[in-house]
Design a protein that fits this description.
Blueprint: H1 4-38, E1 45-48, E2 63-68, H2 79-90, E3 96-102, H3 104-107, H4 112-135, E4 140-146, H5 149-163, E5 167-173, E6 197-203, E7 220-223, H6 236-246, E8 263-264, E9 267-268, H7 275-278, H8 280-287, E10 296-297
Parallel strand pairs: 2-3, 2-4, 4-5, 5-6, 6-7, 7-10
Antiparallel strand pairs: 1-3, 8-9
Helix pairs in contact: 4-5
The structure holds calcium ion.
The site of calcium ion has 8 residues, from loops.
Length: 302
Amino acid sequence: MTSGFDNISISSVKVFKKIYFAAALTILVVFVLLIKCSNPSAPGSLFFVQPENIEPAQPSQYGLVIVVHGWIEKGGNDWPEDMAKEIAKKVDSDLWLCGYFDWPEGADRINPTNAAKFARDTAGPKLADEIIQKFGNVRHIHLIGHSCGCWVINKAAEILAEKTQADLQLTFLDAYVPMGWQENKLGDIKVTEGRRFWAEHYFTRDYTIGFTEVTLTNAHNVDISALDSGIKDHKFPWRWYYATITGQYPKSMFSDGTEYEFIVDGIEYGFARSKEADGEKTWQKSLTLPPGNEPISLSPKN
Ligand SMILES: [Ca+2]
């Protein structure tokens, strides 16, 4: 028969073991992250989901749609590749090439500000360079970025504005603006006369507090917080944008049949605003939607 003292001792040892192993595991994870994050070497790579179309005969007829992930994420076998594939199903494949930009080494930083710096200074220029090398004469480029990925697409657009003749669309999804950074850098893209540029920003007021809900001076702002029926989530904007492409939220999110909302005052938001969704008429309408606006609020249907 075990005494009360022995029971206390045994439970104490079990608790101690749990704490010990939890602490050891935490130290190990931090150590691995520190090694992994200390010196990211790969700036990132561009992949297309329609490989048969990568060498178009007349590239000047084509447009590109590229999806870019954010902090501690990746593009391949993850939501950016999925999103690019879903967009590819919706567009005229003779006119549009769809893909994603993968920059996992730079995104895997302990401090998200360092990931944003890598995005702006290394990944963004690499994305622009890959586009210029292979598709420097396309007519229209739509870049979609989430969180830190917004700095990838923004820097890429700055370079593409200078070195190509393409019209540009930027879609910022819950843009991350690190403390001390200027939000008005996002969407501040100068295109030469005769070319068109438009930026939009879909965001939630979520647990990341003020860092991913900034009203952007140089993008058309849309607040979709009210549509997120769970804990307000930093990932919700890309999931919602996915729904505006496919007609439903990704699997595992909400229950089957949950409706998404995307119309305010007769204007469809999300993928519907892109040129590749419905052609020149859609794009012309987008160009009339002003940047720096008081955010449009999307609400669930009654
Ligand atoms: Ca947010």
